[in-house]
Predict the 3D structure of the following.
Amino acid sequence: MKANKYFITIISIIITVFSAYAQSPSDFRVVPNSTEDGVIITKYTGRLATVQIPFQIEEMPVKEIGAQAFAGNRTIANIRIPNTITAIGDEAFALCGRLRAVAIPSSVTSIGKNAFEYTGIISATLSKNLASIGEGAFYNCTQLRTIEIPEGVTVIPNSAFGACASLTEVRLPSTIQTIEEHAFQACMSLTAVIIPRTVERINFGRNAFGGCTNLNPASKARLKQLGYE
């Protein structure tokens, strides 16, 4: 009798865990992409804390996360993105306040405007093949602590990491050419901006680092050397 109860308990636990992570394709609304060789997620309707985006929906590869597809979701804490995804649209995850971690696979080449603004992200791993980041992409992610911009990115756009109050360290690539206005404004905890020695000049927008009052002397000197006033 005890053995049966033990077995039933184990099965119940397995079912509970599986249910927490099981993902149904019916939770996603999709449309064909422009080349009709895949689909774009336009809306997520599920309520799971950990979301695994499927590789395929309706027998077509999932190529993009569309504009506002997950915006305002109040349950997602972790998102798992497959390596079929090439683009994350404008405001795709905006206002997902419980979202804590995101790993963006190497297949992704662009992140849209305000894609992750006002989320609770603590850590973000960016695609090594990322080419462009939209304006305000990580704006007001107040829990984000460090960020490394991958090689290939040439521009940090307007307000991309503005008001990230917990951000302490930024690593920029050797390909960086422009840091637009307000890109890191009001990052009050920022102490270190690490820039490869091979970078000789950066075009800085107004207040690119405005309000970053805790930058260490080495970072201040390097930014000044590169043209930041």
